[in-house]
Amino acid sequence: MNTNKIVYKDLKIEHICKSNLKHSYITVGKDAKVVLKTPKVSQRYIDNLLADRENWIRKQIYKIEQNPPPKVNIEDEVLLFGEVYSIDIDEARELRGFLEKLKINSDANVLKCYDRFYKIHAKNYITPRVEYFSKVMNLNFQELKFRKMKSRWGSCSSRGIITLNSELIKVKKELIDYVVVHELAHLKHMNHSKRFHDLVESHLQNSKELRRELKKIRIF
Q1: What is the pLDDT of residues 32-49, one digit of tens each?
Q2: Does residue 220 register a pLDDT over 80?
Q3: φ and ψ at 157, to 5 degrees?
Q4: 207: CB partners within 8 A, 6+ apart
Q5: Residue 123, CA distances (Å) to 8, 40, 128, 143, 161 in order
Q6: Domains of the chain
Q7: What CA dihedral angle connects 153, 159, 160 and 166, to 10 degrees?
């Protein structure tokens, strides 16, 4: 694997060349860092690829710059429901306990404590919301799961299994409810048809505004 820096116009890009790759990939991280991964290719191929994807890259960077994620000082603060709080709040008692038990106080271990805390807090808060809307919508799910996901807030399988991103606990409660209703609605409509959106709208009258707001938030 070879890594080098590329400057395309004013864009600074990290290029990772891996011989075992079959395709090329471009990602824009939450810090607006652009990474290009390719197999062994020519410079002309890279230039053509960047020219083709330039508008998309700039659009992703613009979104990040316009909607930066809340900054949390690790071990001093915690992000809950769209607000940054001191780690001394009662709700973070469990997190403080995890951190106190650390034998090796590395950044990686601290972040694992945070992930564990967010997953537990997500289960405790969001599970009752799913059960509430399930009754209101008269839609029954088979199983509810929580896990940290990088690219989606939730999913619903054809078997009635709903999986929610534990990172949801970091956004506003109204947005959490939107994701819950959205995934429950998939129990009836496994698509994003007009009937699907009408069902969501019937239970959350401001669902369109909530959907637009959620799209602006990058998953942490």
Answers
A1: 899 999 999 999 999 999
A2: no
A3: -90, 165
A4: 178, 181, 197, 200, 201
A5: 44, 45, 9, 13, 15
A6: 2-66 (no CATH), 77-215 (3.30.2010.10)
A7: -30
